[in-house]
Design goal:
By secondary structure, the protein is of the alpha+beta class. The chain has three domains: 133 residues, no CATH class; 108 residues, no CATH class; 139 residues, no CATH class. The strands form seven sheets. Strands 13, 14, 17, 18, 19, 20 and 21 form a seven-stranded mixed β-sheet that branches. The protein has a four-stranded antiparallel β-sheet with strand order 2-3-5-4. Helix 2 packs antiparallel against helix 3. The longest helix is centred in the N-terminal third of the chain and has 15 residues. It is elongated. It holds the Pfam family N6_N4_Mtase. It comes from Methylohalomonas lacus.
Length: 502
């Protein structure tokens, strides 16, 4: 029993923000700014606003006072509910002006002397004009922003109404108000949390996150997972619309988002599509010779020994389909921007060709914590052969650059780099380039491009440098440098099919 009790942890107390407190504080600040101070007129207007706000609870309406510092507060009795027997609860409190003791409640004080001393030090005890009045406690509104989350949460909002306002058709949706209540409670201490929804549906979770960030300037981020065909028809349009502006009616924006609202909306929503089983099969392109086809059609292949079945399961996938896009066509790495797969449209048999983001996929495969991704840059270059007169005429002449690389949007040599850290802590540079098919020119341009980056003078010593395509980069390494070069294609293929051996 003792061992079991030792393992019992105290339950976590989940706090939720009280719904109206922030709105009340904002309103009070606006009134104080209007009058320049918390004078009688400001307090009068504050009380008038409270009386007219039907959505406020009785517990909120009693915060009807504002002190000279602009703090909204209420006055509370400090009398103990039961008769206090201990004399320490009957110690008088001295009036700060008359320096005489104030009356002590007949039941004694609600708080111990130490607590009362803290209240005095923090100016949280209210005194009368003189020592004849019993002091009361000053409770600030900003100290009561939250409460413990109840075990039963009630919500009467309908999510379908929100979808109708956006002009998005979907049979059912949960309420963003209820989702926001739950998410806000779980991200109360940290407004930069990641919110993950494995079954995103129509996108209520993300909608609620966007609303919360607009309310409290939070930086929560969402990750949604969905495989239904309504991802493109419902979820994505919904999030695009609520990002644009918070208020919609009949599928049209009621108003444009203010600059402040736009600042608290997502800047980028990244859509990542994972290759499905059907997509993998649709992208297999076997290349079978006449002799192989003849062998498969022979009586021996059709026999009980299962030759044809073994061939289809092993040889066909391992050999004939090698180089298919879904099995990683290394030859297609010559242009990192042009790797394509045929992707089946949800809910139909139609397929379309889409680009695959090799750069980001590789970042994930090597577990790279990305620090920088540069914009693509393209270059032109001219070449000449070494005309050293001391070499025999029949000797091969080395290719040289004729001048410097020239940046040009239409140039054939394209570069993009990623820097970051691998899970084992190695500083990594990933160089992606387009290859023209002339290895001598491609590597000469790569060498010159690498020199002009001048990485060694940037206080950045890379441990690993990845490059697509065969190269001579290690020849440029200085004696005091320790970086190693690895081929992107080799690690891409190794990691892509790790633990898939039959």
């Amino acid at each position: 029993m003792i061992a079991l009790i030792d393992r019992i942890q105290a339950p976590q107390i989940i706090k939720v923000k009280k719904k109206n407190i922030t709105r009340m504080l904002d309103r009070a600040n606006a009134i104080i700014n209007k009058y320049g101070e918390a004078n009688k007129d400001a307090i009068s207007e504050w009380r008038e606003w409270l009386r007219n706000e039907k959505s406020l609870s009785k517990a909120e309406l009693i915060y009807d006072l504002i002190d000279d510092k602009g703090e909204v507060f209420r006055s509370a009795d400090m009398t103990a509910t039961d008769k206090r027997q201990n004399e320490k609860f009957h110690i008088p409190i001295m009036h700060p002006v008359t320096n005489k003791n104030c009356p002590v409640p007949s039941n004694g004080w609600r708080y111990a002397p130490g607590t009362i001393e803290d209240l005095l030090n923090n100016d949280l005890i209210l005194f009368g004009e003189d020592h004849t009045k019993i002091p009361r406690r000053k409770i600030l509104l900003r100290d009561n922003l939250d409460s413990q989350m109840p075990s039963i949460c009630k919500s009467g909002y309908r999510g379908k109404v929100e979808l109708d306002a956006l002009g998005v058709e979907f049979p059912f949706a949960h309420s963003t108000e209820f989702y926001g209540y739950l998410i806000n409670a779980l991200s109360y201490e940290n407004h930069g949390e990641f919110v993950l929804d494995y079954f995103a549906g129509s996108g209520t979770t993300a909608h609620a996150v966007i609303n919360l960030n607009r309310e409290d300037s939070g930086q929560r981020k969402f990750i949604l997972v969905e495989m239904g065909d309504y991802f493109d028809a419902v979820l994505l349009p919904r999030l695009k619309k609520v990002t644009f502006t918070p208020e919609w009616k009949d599928g049209k924006p009621k108003r444009l988002a203010t600059a402040e609202e736009a600042e608290r909306s997502p800047r980028i929503m990244k859509v990542v599509r994972l290759e499905s089983y059907e997509d993998a099969l649709n992208n297999l392109m076997p290349a079978r010779s006449d002799s192989q086809q003849k062998l498969l059609g022979s009586p021996e292949a059709q026999g009980a020994d299962g030759l044809k079945e073994q061939y289809m399961l092993r040889y066909m996938l391992d050999v004939e389909s090698r180089g298919s896009q879904s099995l990683l066509n290394i030859d297609a790495f010559t242009d990192p921007t042009a790797y394509k797969l045929k992707v089946k449209r949800p809910g139909s048999e139609e397929s379309r060709e889409v680009n695959v983001d090799l750069i980001e996929t590789f970042n994930w495969l090597i577990g790279l914590t990305v620090e920088t991704i540069t914009a693509p840059r393209t270059f032109n270059a001219n070449f000449q052969r070494d005309n050293d007169p001391d070499l025999p005429k029949v000797s091969p002449r080395r290719l040289l650059l004729d001048g410097r690389l020239r940046q040009n949007d239409q140039g054939p040599w394209w570069f993009r780099t990623v820097t970051g850290t691998t899970p084992d802590g190695r500083s990594t540079l990933v160089i992606w380039r387009k290859l023209t098919g002339d290895a001598e020119q491609d590597n000469l341009v790569l060498d010159e491009w690498f020199r002009i980056q001048d990485y060694s003078s940037r206080d950045t010593e890379f441990d690993l440098i990845y490059v697509n395509g065969d190269n001579n980069l290690e020849n440029l390494r200085q004696p005091d440098e320790t970086w190693k070069v690895r081929l992107i294609e080799e690690d891409f293929h190794r990691l892509m099919f790790a633990d898939t051996e039959v």
